[in-house]
Amino acid sequence: MHESTAWPFFAAEHRRLAPALDAWARRHLRDLPHDVDAACRHLVAALGRDGWLRYCVPAEHGGALPTMDSRALCIARETLAYHEPLADFAFAMQGLGSGPITLGGTTEQQARYLPRIVDGTAIAAFALSEADAGSDAGALETRAVRDGRDFILTGEKTWISNGGIADFYIVFARTGEEVGTRDISAFVVEAQTPGLTVTSRIETIAPHPLATIRFANCRVSAQHLVGELGGGFRLAMRTLDVFRASVAAAAVGFARRALDAALDHAAQRSMFGQRLLDFQLTHAAIAQMAVELDAAALLTYRAAWTRDVAGQPATREAAMAKLAATESAQRIIDRAVQLFGARGVSRGNVAERLYREIRALRIYEGASEVQALVIARQTIARHAAIAGETR
Fold first, then answer.
1. Which of 242 and 136 is assigned the larger pLDDT?
2. CA distances for 21 relative to 44, 88, 298, 345, angstroms
3. Dihedral over Cα of 102, 308, 329, 2: its sign
4. pLDDT tens per residue across span 105-161
5. Which of 80, 78, 81, 75 is closest to 14 using CA atoms?
6. Nearest CA to 212 among 133, 172, 171, 156?
7. What pLDDT, on a 0 to 100 scale, did the predictor assign at position 5?
8. Could you count the other beta carbons within 10 Å of the beta carbon of residue 294?
9. Band (373; pLDDT cuts 50, 70, 90)
10. pLDDT value of position 136
11. Which residue among 25, 83, 90, 194 is least enclosed by CB atoms within 10 Å?
12. With contact defined as beta carbons under 8 Å apart, do 5 and 75 qualify?
């Protein structure tokens, strides 16, 4: 990671962040509680206590930098993912779960929630997905019906990260009769609000706090509306656009850890009178891993730089980064498992854990196939626009 910050994408504050967070992670990301909920609570508290969650919000709300900075988010996620995937998860969800309030919340909402995000005393969740509305967010069916000065929420959300441990949820619900992405609004709903229940916890191959939550005549005041009525989908997309490149950064962190672990193992493993690292086939595998890793990192930080510095929409660049980084990380980690041999599929081995961790990144916040559609559509549109200008 430290070598990457020498690239021209970064400013001085980014070059300070990477080694400082790396040193902190080496000291503090050990001996976590075995229970995943307890571990996440511990990590959020520790990240808040030591100031790292300040990168999830702008300076006016206690943040470290003047605005939401994609490069800083990417550096933080790559570094944390390298050391402890659950720490990356805890950090990312604080930003993603509070992002709509940062980008579109009222002054009162920002003052109520964002300082607690920064100091790690409140855990946030982003409740968009439903059983039949994952990549197609416009298909969501949860409704919020106006009742005087209140809204009554009814419906069910699933695959909700931090579900069951969050102190508040940003909930996206349909507030009108339009189909598709229109008439979707966002609400901040406290976890203890009557009518909100956690109906089931979801077990995945890499343990994280995930749940299905239900709203049964869940009443919230109009003051809990985040952003404009009917503007929820746009707010969700703005939030995801900030954080999508950081998903790629987490994949880069996983891949970098896998490559380092594979190199260490291959240098120590004796086979047929020489080290595993000395075989030409091993050289070929290491070379391919290194090329894919640097290519993914370059795409990731180009996307972050495009948003932060160039001031341009980075939807296409972020989609490229997420697609390339998550898919290449899967291949890099798979090669690491192969180099470890039987140890690579043994529970507790670093490559085995990373193999389970990386799989979800190819799905959440837009599956690889959805990223390909985004890239293709934007590339076609860009070509058509350039062709029209030259005619």
1. 242
2. 15, 12, 20, 30
3. negative
4. 999 999 999 999 999 999 999 999 999 887 787 889 999 999 999 999 999 999 999
5. 75
6. 156
7. 84
8. 15
9. very high
10. 80
11. 194
12. yes
Contact 122, 116 (CB under 8 A): yes
* 8 Å CB contact between 175 and 146: yes
Decide: residue 27, CB within 10 A, 0-12 exposed, 13-18 middle, 19+ buried.
Answer: exposed
Tell whether the model's pLDDT for residue 1 goes beyond 80. no
Reply yes or no on whether the pLDDT at 276 is more than 70: yes
Per-residue pLDDT at 311 exceeds 90? no
Full-model pTM: 0.95
pLDDT tens, residue by residue, 74-110: 999 999 999 999 999 999 999 999 999 999 999 999 9
The reported pLDDT for the residue numbered 167 is 98
- Of the candidates 13, 317, 365, 389, the residue annotated as catalytic is 365
What is d(CA 188, CA 108) in angstroms, rounded to the nearest whole number?
12
Can you list the alpha helix ranges (DSSP code H) found in the chain? 12-28, 36-49, 70-83, 85-104, 107-119, 232-268, 280-305, 315-340, 350-361, 368-390
Q: Tell which residue, 161, 179, 180, has the closest CA to residue 170.
A: 161
**Burial (Cβ within 10 Å: 0-12, 13-18, ≥19) of residue 304:** buried
Burial class of residue 382, CB neighbours in 10 A (0-12, 13-18, 19+): exposed
- Which one-letter amino acid corresponds to residue 356? R
Kindly give, in sequence order, each residue whose CB lies less than 8 Å from that of residue 208, ignoring residues fewer than 6 positions away. Answer: 36, 40, 86, 89, 161, 360
Cα dihedral 104, 108, 112, 114 sign: positive
Two tokens, residue 111: 């003052």
Interior CA angle at 297 toward 205 and 4, to 5°? 120
Residues in the chain: 391
Residue 2 has pLDDT above 90, yes or no: no
Contact 28, 50 (CB under 8 A): yes
According to DSSP, the β-strands at 184-190 and 225-226 are antiparallel
pLDDT at 182: 87
Tell me whether residue 365 is one of the annotated catalytic residues: yes
What's the burial of 356, exposed, middle or buried (CB within 10 Å: 0-12/13-18/19+)?
middle
